[in-house]
Amino acid sequence: MPHVALARNAMATRFEMILHGADESRLRAAGEEALAEIERIEAQLSFYRPTSEVSRLNAHAADAPVRVDPELFRLLRHALQLARETGGAFDLTVAPLMRAWGFTRSTGQCPDPRTLAEAKACTGWRNVELDERESTVRFARPGVMLDLGALGKGHALGRAAEILREDGVTSALIHGGTSTACAIGSTPDGEPWKVAIERPRPPGTPPPAGPAGLLATVPLRDESLSVSAVWGKSFTVDARVFGHVIDPRTGEPAQGALLAAVALPSAAETDAFSTALLTAGPQGHDALAALRPGMKTLLLTECRSGGGLAVASKGIETSPG
Predict the structure, then answer these.
(1) Is 16 a domain residue?
(2) C-alpha dihedral over 85, 153, 275, 67, to 10 degrees?
(3) What are phi and psi of 285, to 5 degrees?
(4) How many C-beta atoms lie closer than 10 Å to residue 84's C-beta?
(5) b or e along 290-309 (b: 16 or more beta carbons within 10 Å of the residue's beta carbon)?
(6) Strand spans (E) along the chain
(7) How far apart are alpha carbons 256 and 277 in whole angstroms?
(8) How far is CA 170 from the centre of its chain?
């Protein structure tokens, strides 16, 4: 069966897709349309582009209600719902804390207590007020800022998948970097798409060859998988690693887990829930896994005594070793 592979850089990520079907030219056209949609969403949601709608909100919503595009309004409403459901373990207002910890434009640094306290005071999903009738957004206090990085990539992948389905694509896999993958249908031989989750390893070291380097291989059919981890952007102080995933409830980098993975049909929700699971850690695993029927999860933590790693999973089979 003919196939097309396409790729594009957006959202500081390499988006790649492979599409299978009978007509190669139609597959390519559908893939280009889907990638263009990802770029459009980046222009709307980017925290870093001064022309984006999110940047406009961050600049003006503390002064007066700001009318936004209906699509963005629906996404913000969904994000607030997810924040409520997760008890704030996922929070779209985490931007002040990300900035305080130096993760917005660098690999991070410890903030002084005053800077951290000021950032924490501006964080909290209850500071975002939506007016359904007017389609406006207002912040309850100055200093509140939105950062949809823990939701936007999944939202973009979900929209890209919708476009591919509308264009008649029935077999495809899309992924954004190493964090989120979205499967449409099955592979050409009728098997689920298989997405690997790598075992953690010291930064800069290559993965072990073969199955030894895998934590799990997750079969996906019309599902999405998101993985959140403390490595990536991080720094170390006194042998303690501070990762870029901030717990909005404490104001500090998440310490409860090393890696969290979530599988669901919605890529936006897997994106948000994997962040929330990494933040909540083992104590919040059961409650989070119960938020959606059929949610599959995996959580990797450091053993408190004796060193080593511990894996807890619900519906995701881990690899031997």
Answers:
(1) no
(2) -40
(3) -60, -50
(4) 12
(5) eebeebbbbbbbeeeeeeee
(6) 3-10, 13-20, 66-67, 128-131, 136-139, 171-176, 180-185, 193-198, 214-220, 224-229, 234-237, 240-243, 246-247, 252-253, 259-264, 296-302, 309-314
(7) 9
(8) 24
Q: pLDDT tens, 278-301?
A: 999 999 999 999 999 999 999 999
- Which residues form the domain of 60? 53-149
Phi/psi of residue 187, nearest 5 degrees:
-70, 165
The mean pLDDT value for 204-218 works out to: 74
Angle at 224 between CA 235 and CA 159, to 5 degrees: 100
Residue 263 lies in a domain: no
Q: How far apart are CA 231 and CA 228, in angstroms?
A: 9
Residue 62 domain-assigned?
Answer: yes
Q: Is residue 294 part of a domain?
A: no
Provide the number of structural domains found in the chain: 1
Of these ranges, 210-219, 259-268, 306-315, the one predicted with the greatest mean pLDDT is 259-268
pLDDT digits (tens, 9 = 90+) for 123-157: 999 999 999 999 999 999 999 999 998 899 999 99
pLDDT at position 163: 98
Kindly report the CATH number assigned to the domain that includes residue 101.
1.10.3980.10
